[in-house]
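INPUT
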Amino acid sequence: MNETIRDIAKPARPDEKRAEPKVSVDVSHQFGTYVVHDRLQFSVRENEFLCICGPSGCGKTTLLDMLAGILKPSRGSILIDRKPVDPKRDNISFVFQEPSTLPWLTVRDNIATGLRIKRAPAALIRQKVEDIIDLVGLRGFEKYYPHQISGGMKQRVAIARAFATDADLILMDEPFVSLDQPTRERMQREVLEIWEHRRRTIIFVTHNLEEAVFLGDRIIILSRKPARIAAEYEVSLARPRNPLASDFTALRAQCARVLHELQGASSATDANQ
Amino acid sequence: MTETSNLIAELAPGSGTEKRTKLSAVLLSVAWNAVVLGIALGAWQLLTVIIHSPFFPGPLAIVSSFLNLAVHGDTFGHSLWEHSWASIERVLVGFAFACVAGVPLGLLMGLNPRLYNYTRVVLEPFRFIPPIAWIPLAIIFFSGLTRFAFLIFIGAFFPVFTTTFVGVARVEPIHRKVAMVYGASKRWILLHVIVPTVLPDILGGMRVALGAAWLTIVAAELAGGISVGLGRMMTNYAELVQIPPIIVGMLLIGAIGFLMNEALLVAERYLFRWRWQVEL
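OUTPUT
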């Protein structure tokens, strides 16, 4: 792996095992002449919970679309299990920032959508949906339509849909940004709980550093465009993490400093975002 | 997760009470419609007493004319059923062709706006030629069922086509993206994302088209050339200056159209139970 020079305040733990990465990213992307990513490189271990932070407009959504295989990078590649990502072959799930439940389907059918597209047998679909519905606390709401439930519940439907398939990779794009603080905290705990129940590789994009430190095994901070890795931290704090503990707040402050510097440097060109 | 189970207890309504309120709402609606109908008929009958003219028959005269037509047929030897069915058949055939052509073409053009942009100089002017303006040509080129089906097709096609076409633009990119992430084929996206989104518009267009179809059929039948059809029956009696059978024809058209519309409404209510009620 080509190690680029990074601004590493607290060096990331070198990959002791150096096992095959689940996901390896090495992409450059531009829209016309507008460079979004220039040789952005990182890899994700199997079952790792990776959080990606960065100043607004650093191309996180573009990166996630490429990781999902629905946007082709201009140059470079994204490999899952050493093969180029392909949504038809790989099991990828995506929890979007905006409401993404399909309004004409019931809660149950919404959760089953991924499995249906993957042509899972009906019995398996029924069982998987049954399993996940308790985990996200939607028992009793199976036959409701999205317009009959709250925004937080809709987002839980989207999360259940993402975890119902045996996803190799779950991408989450600021999934809790539209929720109020208590709901947000509960959802964070719930996602961790689900993730601990059924280990998956998760890439979680967030603006909220507390959220990143609370959730992630590792945090990557992207620079502004063309986005590169500005800093990277392994989070070795034991779970469940206490946001008030001194090592928690120290790491969060460190991330905030890096982000603040990046934001300062970018404020001049932020207007075009 | 205890918070969540509390939430369920709070939110999940007893389905029994929900059903009961729904039933009483339906009964209330039926009752109101019956009352309004009664008042309208009463007022009408009262007016005929005041005006008292053979050219202004009351509801009772209409009912007796209807019974007479239904039992004995018209003065020309055709039964009321024959007239009605002739019109219904023409409407249904023309309307069916309009849907079969309008929905796929609307989807195709909605999904390829360029196709519409490049062809609309030919397509759009047809929308403004009323179906009635096609009657002379239809009389020359077609006869029988074909003539009427053609005219109704002209009248019903554009409401279906245009609403389908416009509806495609309502598809949310995020819904398409959800499907793409799981590796859905284009076919899957069409059937499970685009069609469900556009279906309410299609049904709405079909209801408008049904109105246009009845408008066309009566005009076409009035133009003559056939022996049966409600429009035909009305013209026959106009020549005899007999008013009640004409009004029977009018009311029958209204009643049949109403029933067809109700059938579409039932389909809508079933298909779109996922939609929310808009309130102002």
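end of record. Chain B touches chain A through 27 residues (CB under 8 Å).
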